[in-house]
Amino acid sequence: MQNTAWITLFFAGLLETGWALGLKYTEGFTKVWPSVATLAVMAGSIYLLSRSLSGLPLGTAYAVWTGIGAVGTVIAGIVIFGESRSVVRLLCILLIVSGIVGLRFCSDA
């Protein structure tokens, strides 16, 4: 059950990255189909997060979920939109990943 919760949380975090990217294409929710797709991915992300909470502590799950979403969004911004790849920025991403890994292995669940 525990591994299933972590896997579910991982996919919830990936979907969070997806909806964050989708926001870029909604243009303030003025574009119908990008807005519909973004809202659907948001709902999926939150649903999977809620499912993972049956086996994980709330604080840990939420922090990992937002961390995966943040790291995924930054990496997507670098790859898709040509955003900065500065050393300091990459080190900050590494710090977030370290926190996610730390929470995973230090969690009681």
Describe this structure in words.
The structure is a single chain. The chain has about 110 residues and is mainly alpha-helical. Helices cover about 85% and strands about 0% of the residues. The protein is built from 4 helices and no strands. It has helices spanning about 1-25, 30-50, 60-80, 85-105. The longest helix is centred in the first third of the chain and has 25 residues, at about 1-25. It is flat, with a radius of gyration of 15 Å.
Short description, anyone?
The protein is mostly helical and 109 residues long.
The number of distinct β-strands equals 0
Secondary structure: helix percent: over 70%
**What is the molecular shape?**
flat
Q: In terms of per-residue confidence, which ranges show pLDDT below 50 for 5 or more consecutive residues?
A: none
The main sheet comes to: none
Distance between the termini: 10 Å
Chain-averaged pLDDT:
95
H/E series? HHHH
| % residues in beta strands | under 5%
Rg measurement, Å: 15 Å
The assigned structural class equals mainly alpha
Number of helices: 4
